[in-house]
Amino acid sequence: MDCKMVVLDLDGTLLNDEKTISDKNAHILNELHKQGVHIVIATGRNYYMAKILIEGIKLTEPVILANNGAVVRRYVNDEFIESNYLDFSIFEKIYEQGLKHGLNPIIHVDEYHKGYDIIYECENYEEVYRGYIKKDYKRTKHQKFKEEEIKNILSVCYFNEYQKLLEFKNEIEKIPGEFNIILNQNLRNWSLLELLNINGCKWRALKKYIDSIGIDAAQVIAMGDDNNDIELIKNSGFGIAMKNATDKLKNAADSISRFSNDESGVYYELSEIFKIK
């Protein structure tokens, strides 16, 4: 295929389980960059964390679709490209419904230059959010959600048991208004339910970007491992699910990698496609 772009998820795909990029994965991406292939990172992580985690491929100057495409920036200079914010009125409805289920969310916001990315409400955050916020992560803000309107909402996240989140998901799907719901399963102990703007989707964000630079979807190779990658994998020219991917993603993919994220699966698939060693 005439490939002009490679799009990669981070956790479970480009990153190994130690949250680093293997030398092999970094090598293949740097080689592709030299050949003029665009490198795009499409992740559920916020932009700040994504930028830290891809230090090993900074020479490829990737575009980062962060928070599942809710915000898009260019790594080399933090250039803002696109945003899709969730309306606060929709958040309020979801929030109230969540409290009835004993669920309190974490809110990701687009406040990169103000020094914070996450707003949380419960002071005993380690217990309530089940380790979602790490003690050493300083880019957070404590705030009561109903005291004032929250602007620039990128995603609303609930971290809990899969069945509990599935029941909540089925209920909030009945709430009036357009918004995107993603239930991620490919996590070690818990599941993650995310609510975003209807355009807060890796594929929709990517489609806007490739249209703006004149690349066709058929010229895109995408790789991922979780349910938030389904639309991306289905709509790209060639979609590859990782060996360690969820069954739902594997069913949507054109191909499944021979090796997992812990075995430099990205390297082995791309090196074969592009004939690079």
Describe this structure in words.
With 277 residues, this protein is α/β, with parallel strands linked by helices. The protein has 2 domains: 5-83 and 200-274, HAD superfamily/HAD-like (Rossmann fold, 3-Layer(aba) Sandwich), CATH 3.40.50; 88-196, 2-Layer Sandwich (Hypothetical Protein, Haloacid Dehalogenase-like Hydrolase, Chain: A, domain 2). The chain has helices at 23-34, 47-53, 88-100, 125-128, 162-172, 202-213, 230-235, 247-252, 265-274; strands at 5-8, 38-42, 63-66, 71-74, 79-83, 106-109, 118-120, 140-142, 153-160, 180-184, 191-196, 220-224, 238-241, 255-256. Helix 1 packs parallel to helix 9. The longest helix is centred in the middle third of the chain and has 13 residues, at 88-100. The radius of gyration is 18 Å and the shape is globular.
